[in-house]
Design goal:
heterodimer, A: alpha+beta, 2 domains, four-stranded antiparallel β-sheet, B: alpha+beta, 1 helix, rod-shaped
Chain lengths: ~120, ~130
């Protein structure tokens, strides 16, 4: 009887070990595709805003909507801030900012944040 | 003596039955783990394809041989600024290219995924939409 119990326990431990190996083999988390896509689009908006010297928050909002459609977020130009598509309770945010001097020798600060 | 042998046989049968039952339980749990692991892997493969496609667009945007606009003074490609050239040489992965809803390239095939990028075209902000084939 004892030998039988030992055999059973041994087999269970072996199977549990195999199961644990499966868990350990999980692929490490990579940055999700959504984050990368959002980051690339924010970069697009910042680069184009700098090149076109956009300093109007309404113009930037228009461009934001063209790229992100209904995605919630915010834009800041210097001290002006505007929330866009504010409706959900999403709490994770990706933001990037840029500071440059335009042709009128004025310093412009732009920040764009997107919730996901 | 006979009774002892019978008891031993009963214990052996019980032992084997418990062992089989436990194996079935453990295997079913492990099967679930393996299935979720496989789903996880396939999900990550899709994500990698999405990222790959997005960076493929980026490469064409930055490459002056294709969509990138070259600065005639510095002879450098301007980031996110494009001009239409060599469309026919663009990678066969692209199914459709639109600038502000205006089609500039169309292979008339079924589109699997669409990607939007912010660009400068003819000195104004535009949306570049690239569709990838099946």
């Amino acid at each position: 009887m004892n030998k039988g119990i030992l055999f059973t326990i041994d087999a269970i431990i072996a199977l549990l070990f195999v199961g644990l190996m499966g868990l350990i083999l999980q692929v490490p988390n990579i940055e999700s595709a959504e984050k990368i896509l959002i980051n690339n689009r924010i970069s697009d908006l910042l680069i184009t805003s700098q090149r076109l010297e956009i300093d109007s928050i309404d113009k930037l909002e228009e461009n934001y909507i063209k790229i992100f459609d209904k995605k919630e977020g915010y834009i800041i130009i210097n001290s002006d801030k505007k929330e866009i598509n504010k409706n959900s309770n999403k709490y994770r945010i990706i933001s990037q900012n840029i500071k440059y001097i335009n042709s009128s020798n004025k310093e412009i600060y732009i920040e764009i944040g997107v919730k996901y | 003596m006979m009774l002892v042998k019978q008891k031993k046989a009963q214990v052996m049968i019980l032992d084997v039955l418990i062992f089989i039952l436990l194996i079935i339980i453990i295997l079913s749990i492990e099967t679930k783990i393996i299935i979720s692991y496989k789903e996880d892997i396939s999900f990550k493969e899709t994500e990698i394809e999405i990222i790959k496609n997005d960076f493929l667009i980026e490469i064409y945007l930055l490459d002056c041989n294709y969509l990138g606009k070259i600065n005639t003074q510095t002879k450098k490609c301007m980031p996110n600024e494009i001009e239409i050239k060599n469309i026919e040489k663009i990678n066969s992965y692209f199914c459709e290219i639109k600038i502000d809803d205006k089609k500039i390239f169309d292979r008339k095939e079924e589109i699997k995924n669409k990607y939007k990028r912010g660009i400068i075209y003819k000195n104004k902000f535009s949306v570049l939409e690239v569709g990838f084939c099946e």
